[in-house]
Every structure is written in structure tokens, then in C-alpha cells.
Amino acid sequence: MTDPASNPNTCYRHPDRQSFVLCQRCGRTICPECQTPAAVGVHCPECVREQRAQFQANRRASGAPSGLTVAGRRFAMLDQKATVVLVAISVVVWLLDQVTGRALTGAMLYFAPVADTQPWRIITGLFVHSSFFHILFNMWALWIFGRMLENMLGTWRFLALFFLSGLGGDLAVTLLAPNTPVVGASGAIFGLFAAFFVIQRSLGYNAVQLLVIMGLNLVVGFLPGTSISWQAHVGGIVLGFITGFVFTKTRNVRQRGLQTALLVTEAVVLLVGILLGATGVFA
């Protein structure tokens, strides 16, 4: 096992490339080009070579065939796979919604008064959109910031950030506008903006321009006649800041247990808050 690179914010093989992802085995910082997906997290090239050599030795000794199909290997090698899957699901849902006369919108949108009896809406509401331009803007933002954050955080942390931000938007709607039906991934995407700002600042980069863009987009939601759920945006931003802060403070490999515990705590608090709000406890 080798020592981590002296600069924890850049790839040990490419010092000019920033990254937030550590090799699960040795703890070195690695950029997307150097990452190989593993069962948990990603591995650096040196650790991969060691594993492959051991695997080949074991396979030759046992005569067992490889368990991965060609399609499985290709998907494992795909960069930003979670972002691609989230965009694909949203687009497929929108297309099906159009051909079914918006039947999916009625079945999947988030509506606080029924969240306790139809809890799937807490998640499915993120994947339905009201118009072509609504999904176009959301998927464009998810494609741009999702790929960057997935490169920096890794797939599972990125997914945790996305869904926690979405839950934050649901909770804010439940508390501030409980009788308003809400659709779209805007809350989750605003959470990505906020987390990206926090992470960039922690790495020493100036992210003020992103903060200005986020603020301008947030202000648009308060304009009359826009039919935009500013509550979901605010909730997503708050959870994005919180989750981004958790990531920056628990980056060390030895803090993985603490990081997981904090993320699970966030999810539990959000879900309990949403379900209690749906039953009118906070009314």
C-alpha cells in the first residue's frame, strides 16, 4: 500500500486535476480518468492492477469463468452512469406522460396531503415535469452539474445528494405550501448547485459566480405568474448546503462510517418530517 498524495485536493497521477474522490483501498485522490468502479466506491490504477492480478491467479487456479457479461462490463466502464440513468428515467417518464394524456403526472406528482398514504410520490415527483421547457431546463442543469459532481463525489454520494436535496424540497413544500401539488427535479437540482458551491469553496476555488446564478434562478420563483415552487427550491438548497458540508468534513477514508451515519440521519429526519407534515402535525 502506498501513501496518499501530498495534496489531497488533486489527483495523485494528474496534479493539475481537482477531485473529491478517494481510492477505496489506499485513500489516494483520483480524477475521473484514473477511477475504476468497484463494489464500494472506486479504485486507483495501482490497486486495480493488484486486484486483477490476484483475480486472474484465483481464476486460473479454479477454472471459473468471469461473472460479468459484456453489457455489464460496458455499463461499469460508463462515466457518470447515475447522471445518465436519472436523465434517461426523466425523459422516458415525460414521453410516456405525453402519450397517456398526463396520466403519469396525476399518479406520480408530489402532494403533501396524501404523502402518508401514497409515499411513493415523495420520490416519483422528481421524475415528472409539467412542460417541454420545464424538463429541458432541468435535464440540461442535471446533465451539466450532475456529471461534474458525480466525477468529484462518486456515484453513490452523488445519488445521496440528489435524493436528499429532493426530499428537502418535498419537506419545504409540506411545511410552507402543503396544498400545492409539485412536479419536477428542480429542488434536487438546486441542491446540486448548493453542494457544488460548498465543495468548490472547500477545495479553494472561487464559486461566487455560481452563487449569483443560483440566487437569480431562485428569485425567478418568487415572480408572480411563474407557477414555480420556490419552496422546493429553498428546501433543496438548504439540504444541498448541509450535505455538501457533510462531504467536505468527512472526506477521509476513516470517516466513511460517520459520513454514512450522517447521510442516513438526514434521510430519516426528512422522511419523518414529510410524513408528520402530511398528517397535519405542523398545521
Question: Can you offer a commentary on this structure?
Answer:
This is Membrane associated rhomboid family serine protease. With 283 residues, the protein is mainly alpha-helical. It folds into 2 domains: 1-77, no CATH class; 79-278, Rhomboid-like (Rhomboid-like fold, Up-down Bundle), CATH 1.20.1540.10. Helix content is 61%, strand content 1%. It has helices spanning 45-62, 70-77, 81-99, 103-108, 121-124, 132-153, 155-176, 186-202, 208-220, 230-249, 256-278; strands spanning 36-37, 42-43. A two-stranded antiparallel ribbon has the order 1-2.
Provide keyphrases for this structure.
283 residues, mainly alpha, Rhomboid-like fold, 2 domains, two-stranded antiparallel sheet, 11 helices, 1% strand, globular
